Each structure stands twice: as C-alpha cells, then as structure tokens.
Amino acid sequence: MIKHYSILNDEVLEEIDFLISDKRYEHFYLINAIQKIKNKTLEYCDAWSIKGGKDSWILGVWTRDTYYLFGNNWITSQLTEVNKLIEFEKFKSFAFSGTHNLLEDIQNLNFTVNFHDNKLRNFFRIDGESKITSEHVNIRYAKLDDLQVLISMRIDYYFEEYNGENNKSEFEIAPIVRKGIYNNRLFVIQNAQGNLIGSCSVLDSERLGIIFIKKGFRKKGYGKSLLACVTKKLLEKNSSKKCYLMTDKLKGSSNKLAFAVGYKRIYQYSTKILNNCG
Core-most of 51, 133, 192, 261, by most CB within 10 Å? Predict the structure, then answer.
C-alpha cells in the first residue's frame, strides 16, 4: 500500500512515529530533518510510504537538499515501486541518505541509478554496564580553563573527520564547547603530566557525541579508557541502561574502539550522491 503526503501534517508525523517505533536512534537524521522542517529551517517537498506485510515498509522524505530513504524488511516489489515514485533523472548530484542496505538495493535493482558514497555511518549500542575498567584515572568534567584547548581539538576533529571538506572556525566552535562545559556534557582526559589530550561530548542521557584524542597520544589506551568511563557514567544514571554512539565506517580506529569497550553495531546509515541516471 502506497501513501503520499504532500504536506507535513499530523498524519505523516504519526505514520513516521509508527514506522520507526522504538528505533529512534537509528533514525536520528530523519528525526532531525523533521524537526528542521517544523521549525521552517528546511524546505519540505514531499513524502510517501510503502507498506507490505508485518514490519515491511519503505519511507521516503524529500527535502530541499536531501532525499531520505528508510526501510525495514523490504521486498523486491517495494523497491520496484520506489523506482516508479522517484524520477531519479531529475536528481543528478543530489544527496540520498538513509538505510544503507536499502540504498544499495535500489541501485542494484535499477542499473540506471549510479550513486557514489559520500558518508557511511555505523550506529552502535551497548546494553548494561561496560566491563572495561579505566586504566587512566585523570578523567573529569571539562572546565572553562580548558576552553581554548577544547576548541583547538574540536577544530582538528572536523578537519580530520571530513577530510578538510567541512572545516569549522573558532567562532563556530566556541559557543558549542562553552555550552558543553556549562551543562556538564564534556569530559576530558589528561596524561600523567597533567596535559589535556582528549575529550568526549555527551548529547543526552543515552547518546555520546564526539570522541577525540590528540595525535601523538593515540593507540595508547586513552581513547578506550575515556569511552569506557563516560559510557559507565551514563549507564549508571539513565533508566534504559543503554548507550549509543555513531562512527564513520571508514575510520577503523573509532570502530575498533567501540567494539573494544563492548558496543555492538546495530545499524548502518549512508549518504550517497547521485552521479547520473540513465
């Protein structure tokens, strides 16, 4: 069954909530986009859903800059409908984001669709308490005295994470870091000499944000200790006893770090650019 939603109203919001159910973290980017649409900072173009049997569905949300495609237990006939609903020839150089395997299957079914990978994210979850004990005790909440070092590290993070294609200035970073300090959502780790060498941000009671260790201090156990310590603190405080984080699939060290602490990969999210069609 196919449904179209020409406007973002309560009906489509209820449908999205129903489809994603309790898997809200896996659909973080979709929820974020919906919030931007509601706040009128992102233009909404169209949306539709294709539902089959139990828990079989594909959802499409088209915005000004991205076409979001998510799904669960989809079948070939639903993929065929997607190829009818989306006029791919109109979207050259456009971004398509969502469930990684769904985007792969769409391309494999339609030989005229040629995507290239822009970003592939691994989503991780840990249940219960982390079994890793911290080898480095110098982990604490960030303080205002750490501000300049933290700003410098965050700038370095964006340069490394996006290969120089999404650089941030001190003007952009400083308010975010200050907010993290004031809200006790930034942890730092120091070495034996007392030098601040890494940080970990917290998005909320269940979600970790950016983990960064300075060059020269990597592969020495600092990242593992920092992640384990912050994870344990969140698990002790939240009622769900779950923690989540995401990594870049191509950044091998961050994925190994998540696995080493006890996280398990639960989802893959990708952004692909449509090279051509036809």
Answer: 261
